[in-house]
UniProtKB/TrEMBL annotation:
PANTHER family noted in UniProt: DTDP-4-AMINO-4,6-DIDEOXYGALACTOSE TRANSAMINASE, TRANSAMINASE
SUPFAM superfamilies tied to this protein: PLP-dependent transferases
Coiled-coil residue spans: none
Domain of life per record: Bacteria
Active-site residue list: K197 (proton acceptor)
Gene Ontology MF terms: pyridoxal phosphate binding; transaminase activity
Name of the protein described by the UniProt record: UDP-4-amino-4, 6-dideoxy-N-acetyl-beta-L-altrosamine transaminase
Keywords for this protein: Pyridoxal phosphate
InterPro entries assigned: DegT/StrS_aminotransferase, PseC, PyrdxlP-dep_Trfase, PyrdxlP-dep_Trfase_major, PyrdxlP-dep_Trfase_small
Gene from which this protein is expressed: pseC
NCBIfam families in alphabetical order: PseC
Organism, scientific name: Bacillus thuringiensis
GO biological process: polysaccharide biosynthetic process
Length: 330
């Protein structure tokens, strides 16, 4: 489209090349960080993983961070740590990727979908309250597009009903709610490091928490349920001894990935700054088009803008999503 004229109405493209959905930003510092690990002694289960976790925890303001092979694995681990089991209900949103609900199913639980807010597209606290039953165990709110949910209201609901909050913040690394970083507030928060996210480790995820019990469960779950800490062992036969105390998974991240993530994390704030620059441009250009409704940002939140979602004013624009998509391909 050109300014003020939609492609649906004959507007010509403003770009000569196709704009991809998302793409990683890798520089020479990232490459060198990975090469240094490849030349070192540890490719996995080494010191770089712990350094990356500590850096993530420090950035968001949490006490602990546990990394995983991907965001889905991280959500699965969080559901385990929360004690989700067969028959439990967990309230979440349908406006998300499938992993937000699948992680509940992995533990034998039942996803219950609450409605969303018409302005932010985030889960509605009012709808959450309406969905609570005596089987409800937890809430998984999703900070959709990077826009934080109404955490204060959701925390109040959770406290009144003795529920655990697992925040799906795959879109929201660097976002804030009432001047606090997402990842420092709820019981557990998941971030994703897929290549289209704010920073990447190729594939990867992390859970941040301030709860030491959740931390220990998460840490053990990602390594087959194995326990090595002497104070948690049922028996102790020496420094070589360990126990598999429950059925866990191999959800570990490698030192190679952690090195890339640590290098990327150093640039996160600059990445978000660039995103906000483009948001300002989009808001300015799209605000003159009555056929498009631009994203709403709440005053107490600061989105990290993983996505910029537009809504079509169907009273003025007589077409469907597929037709709009095809117009954008021209």
């Amino acid at each position: 489209m050109v300014r003020g004229i939609l492609g649906m109405h004959g507007g010509k493209p403003v770009r000569e090349t196709y704009l991809p959905y998302g793409q990683q930003q890798i520089d020479e510092y990232d490459i060198q960080a990975v090469v240094d690990v490849l030349k070192g002694d540890f490719l996995t289960t080494g010191p770089m993983v712990q350094q990356f976790e500590e850096a993530i925890a420090k950035y968001v303001g949490a006490k602990y961070a546990v990394s995983f092979s991907n965001g889905t694995a991280a959500l699965h681990a969080a559901c385990y740590a929360a004690g989700i089991t067969e028959g439990d209900e967990v309230i979440t949103t349908p406006m998300t990727f499938v992993a937000s609900a699948n992680c509940i199913l992995y533990q034998g639980g039942k996803p219950v979908f609450a409605d969303i807010d018409n302005g932010t597209y985030n889960i509605s606290p009012k709808s959450i309250e309406e969905k609570i039953t005596n089987k409800t165990k937890a809430i998984i709110p999703v900070h959709f597009t990077g826009q934080p949910v109404e955490l204060e209201e959701i925390q109040k609901i959770a406290k009144e009903n003795n529920l655990i909050i697992i925040e799906d913040a795959a879109h929201a690394l660097g976002a804030t709610y009432k001047n606090k970083k997402i990842g420092s507030i709820g019981d557990m928060t998941m971030f994703s490091f897929h290549p289209v996210k704010h920073i990447t480790t190729g594939e990867g995820g992390v859970i941040t928490t301030n709860n030491p019990l959740f931390y220990e469960k998460l840490f053990q779950f990602r390594t087959h349920g194995i326990e090595k800490n002497p104070r948690n062992l049922l028996e102790n036969h020496g420094p070589w001894y360990y126990e598999m105390q429950f059925l866990g998974y191999n959800y570990r991240i490698t030192d190679i990935q952690a090195a890339l993530g640590l290098s990327q994390l150093n640039k996160l704030d600059s990445f978000i700054k660039i995103r906000k620059k483009y948001v300002d441009i989009y808001n300015k250009e799209f605000s003159c088009l009555s056929e498009i409704i631009i994203p709403k940002q709440l005053p107490q939140t600061d989105s990290s803008w993983h996505l910029y979602i537009i809504r079509l004013n169907t009273k003025l624009l007589k077409c469907n999503r597929k037709e709009v998509y095809e117009a954008l391909q021209r």
